[in-house]
Design goal:
The structure holds two protein chains of two kinds. In chain A, 67% of the residues lie in helices and 0% in strands. Chain A is mainly alpha-helical. Chain A has two domains: 6-103 and 118-187, no CATH class; 191-277 and 356-482, no CATH class. In chain A, helix 1 (6-22) runs antiparallel to helix 2. Classes of the chains: A mainly alpha, B alpha/beta. The A-B interface holds A 5-7, 20-21, 24-25, 187-188, 190, 193-194, 197, 417-421, 424, 456, 459-460, 463-464, 467-473 and B 6, 9-10, 13-14, 16-17, 19-20, 24, 27, 30-31, 34-35, 38, 44, 73-74, 76, 205-206, 209-211, 213-215, 218, 302-303, 307-308, 313.
């Protein structure tokens, strides 16, 4: 079930009413409702893969309980390893099996041995597998590190793993934040619900208007990059930057907003990453739940920054490499991760990676300084360049795309084969950037203006834009579902 | 004590939610009102001309109306239409006589051409290429072969004055009937309910951009639940296709038999690539002349259809008008 579908707009009010009116008196029944609703939500894609979620839930539930009973470190580690192997095994089989087989065949053929790739399987990638396996693993990790006590309430734990707003594309929640909210009684809060509805509206705008509108243009430019000059290719890459941001942050906003309707607060996943002044700041603002997951469960266990500069650099490199691989079974994602590592590491060496840790662009002024402006532009350009690898179908395509940018340097006004009026998109992006700049200080309050009248005008404009850019003919699924 | 506390919580929750719901409804109502105004101010949606069935049982537009046709969102395709005194979209009135040479294009929405300014129609493009010929575009959305032959038959004295008639048919869509009858489903669109609903421009806009298609699809799915509708998604087998084609061909022959067909003056406009060989053989064997637009349209490197719509865009119309012009240039030369 997609957030931007009719099914969801029927499903959500039904669950909401049942949750607050019918099952309100007992926390247990409320959690059972959440669990059933989440399984229905997921099952609408493919009910067969519900078994994987259930399996992952059962394994981590019992592993955590077992770890908690053990004192011996080696045994605890053994059980944790079991959870990791199981979850990564699921992920590896469904997401990476064919990739590794093909890569092995390619590697062998590089040395002159020709093998036929007969081991590849027709495996369907279960939606959201990368998200929920990481969420369940984090629970076992937290119990292992004694950050939390394991729960004995299986139903609540199952509801935590499958909580439908964030099940298929995050934010990847930690048990320390989400589980106790599920195991404790929730009360209906008017302000929280209103804030949730506002986030849903803003998320829908980002998805329907920004991401979906730019989708066909990006698809055309990346598919036919051989036919376009550099100006169009740069435009395509910039459009993709906005498309992926609108798509993913839009999804996160809807997820956070929906969770609020049920009295649950999820962590922020995006904090205006394109207003970052260096790449370090970008990674503290982009897909925060994944970055912090890697930091807590990979970077820190590897030694973090405690074992000297070279080990720190190596650890950062490993994290970015895994981050790339997490995104998809393709060398394009791995190269994307490596590129980000290469850009990030110099900042780390110079000690600049945490420079803008607690500030935002134009913190104390209405406009950014010239230095800030160019820093933001520079970071955006680098990030956009890296997205070329992320978006391209293959490494060859990515390099072909980049090569044309530098070899066919010319400007030709772009027009989509279907004849879409391009000026609409340029105005849209300018409007979007301007508005995001206005709200840059609080990602959870997109309509935080004192004047009720102004707020009403903005709601109307946003809904009007949705009507203007809604396209029934395009694929409206979310990009991150494939990860 | 516990029950009282829970009841209290429930009642207070209910009141807060009532407040939330009421505010939400108020916001929605105000926003809908403003959107209705915006859709009207920016003319984002199309005007619907009024249709009627005349004394001779022919369905057409009420004469002398004008308005704007809009396709898709953001008014990306916006054009004026002009229903002439005969009830068809054209820049000219139809006044055939024996002193002039006329060509009539009889067809559906592709010939009707609401999707482009009426001054830039296929007919006008042909007139520019064939000097001295008046082109009458007798197009009406949804006309099939039964509609077309019935129209020509009922207005025989009018059509007798016209030198050449091109009839646009799509084999898959236009030969499903073996006899003409007024289509009640189409005329339902003129019922008071539909007319009143069309006053809500926002509703019309939403419908046109496909915002209701998901709801429609869901309703269809729900309605078909429990029914044995497995065959709906089944690919048609060869035998069924053959039977269907045979039926369409029989319909064609039957319609020609009932209403008549002047092979000397009438030419069919068809897409050969989407027409079965069986039907093409019938046309060839029996001396039905035709113009094929499919090859040129399908070969075009530039899109020939509109955004959000499968009707011909200006380029598509240029191709079709060129083909018709070339056909008549050649045949007039021969004469």
């Amino acid at each position: 079930m997609l957030f931007n579908s009719l099914e969801f707009f029927i499903f959500l009010p039904i669950v909401f009413i049942l949750y607050w009116f019918v099952f309100k008196k007992h926390l247990k029944t409320q959690n059972i409702l959440l669990l059933i609703a989440s399984y229905v939500f997921y099952g609408m894609w493919d009910w067969r893969f519900l078994s994987l979620i259930l399996l992952s839930t059962i394994v981590d539930y019992f592993v955590a309980l077992k770890i908690n009973t053990l004192e011996h470190q080696t045994k605890r580690k053994l059980w944790l390893s079991f959870s990791i192997i199981f979850n990564l095994g699921l992920l590896g089989f469904f997401k990476y099996y064919n990739f590794f087989v093909d890569s092995w065949v390619d590697l062998v053929s590089m040395f002159g041995y020709h093998m036929q790739s007969t081991w590849t399987l027709k495996v369907i990638l279960p939606v959201g597998i990368s998200f929920y396996t990481f969420q369940t693993m984090s629970y076992s990790f937290d119990v292992y590190y004694k950050k939390i006590k394991p729960t004995r309430d299986f139903l609540s734990f199952a509801a935590f793993v499958s909580f439908f707003p964030q099940l298929v594309a995050g934010p990847i929640e930690r048990a320390s934040n989400l589980l106790h909210q599920i195991t404790n009684k929730r009360t209906f809060n008017y302000n929280q619900s209103v804030s949730g509805l506002k986030l849903i509206l803003w998320g829908l705008f980002k998805k329907v208007v920004i991401a979906d509108a730019l989708g066909p243009l990006v698809d055309d430019i990346f598919t036919n990059y051989n036919a376009y000059p550099s100006s169009t290719l740069i435009l395509g890459a910039v459009f993709f930057s906005f498309q992926i941001y609108g798509d993913f942050s839009g999804y996160s906003d809807i997820a956070i907003g929906t969770a609020k309707l049920f009295g649950i607060e999820l962590m922020s996943n995006f904090k205006f990453p394109y207003f970052s002044r260096n790449i370090g700041e970008f990674w503290r603002r982009w897909h925060i739940s994944l970055s912090s997951w890697f930091q807590a469960y990979i970077y820190v266990p590897l030694g973090g920054s405690r074992q000297g500069k070279y080990k720190t650099i190596l650890n950062v490199f490993i994290v970015f490499l895994i981050s790339g691989l997490w995104h998809g079974a393709n060398w394009t994602f791995i190269l994307w991760g490596i590129l980000h590592a290469v850009i990030f590491i110099p900042l780390l060496v110079l000690g600049q990676n945490t420079k803008y840790k607690n500030t935002v662009l134009a913190e104390h002024s209405k406009l950014p300084s010239l230095k800030e402006f160019f820093s933001v532009l520079f970071v955006f350009s680098i990030v956009t360049f890296c997205w070329i690898f992320f978006r391209s179908e293959s490494i060859t395509d990515a390099f072909g795309f980049i090569e044309r940018i530098f070899t066919d340097v010319s400007y030709v006004s772009y027009s989509h084969p279907m004849g879409y009026r391009m000026i609409d998109y340029y105005i849209l992006i300018l409007f979007f950037v301007f508005y995001e700049f206005l709200i840059r200080k609080d990602e959870r309050s997109p309509f935080n203006f004192k004047s009720k009248g102004l707020r009403f005008v903005i709601y109307t404009v946003i809904i009007f834009c949705m009507l203007l850019f809604y396209d029934d003919n395009i694929d409206r699924s979310f990009i991150y579902f494939q990860f | 004590m516990m029950i009282i506390l829970i009841d209290h919580l429930f009642i207070s929750n209910f009141n807060i939610m009532k407040k939330l719901l009421l505010r939400l409804l108020l916001y929605v109502f105000c926003i809908v009102l403003i959107l209705e105004v915006l859709v009207r101010v920016f003319h984002l949606t199309k005007d619907y001309p009024v249709r009627f069935v005349d004394d001779l049982g022919v369905e057409r537009w009420v004469p002398n109306q004008e308005g704007y046709s809009v396709t898709g969102n953001r008014r990306q395709n916006f054009s004026k239409f002009n229903i002439n005194s005969s009830g068809y979209n054209s820049y000219r009135d139809f006044e055939p006589s024996k002193d002039k040479m006329e060509l009539a294009l009889v067809g559906d929405s592709f010939i009707e051409g609401f999707h482009q300014h009426y001054n830039n129609s296929i007919g006008k493009k042909i007139e520019a290429k064939l000097n001295g010929i008046e082109v009458y575009e007798i197009g009406y959305a949804g006309y099939d072969f039964a509609d077309q032959l019935h129209l020509i038959h009922q207005y025989q004295s009018f059509f007798d004055l016209i030198d050449h008639v091109v009839i646009d048919i799509k084999f898959e869509d236009d030969l499903t009937r073996n006899e003409y009858g007024i289509l009640k489903e189409r005329m339902k669109l003129e019922s008071p309910m539909y007319r009143n609903l069309r006053h809500f421009k926002l509703l019309v806009y939403l419908q046109n951009i496909g915002a209701f298609s998901a709801a429609r699809k869901m309703t269809t799915t729900l309605l078909s639940l429990g029914q044995n509708n497995i065959s709906i998604h089944k690919k048609e087998d060869v035998n069924t296709t053959r039977k269907r084609y045979a039926k369409y061909i029989k319909n064609f022959q039957n319609l020609v038999h009932i209403y008549g067909y002047d092979k000397a003056r009438f030419v069919l406009l068809i897409d050969k690539e989407n027409t079965p060989q069986l039907f093409l053989d019938l046309l060839d064997k029996n001396g039905y002349a035709y113009i094929d637009f499919g090859k040129k349209i399908n070969q075009s490197q530039i899109p020939t259809t509109l955004i959000y719509d499968q009707h011909w865009n200006n380029h598509g119309r240029n191709i079709v008008s060129n083909l018709i012009s070339e056909f008549y240039k050649k045949s007039l030369k021969k004469q």
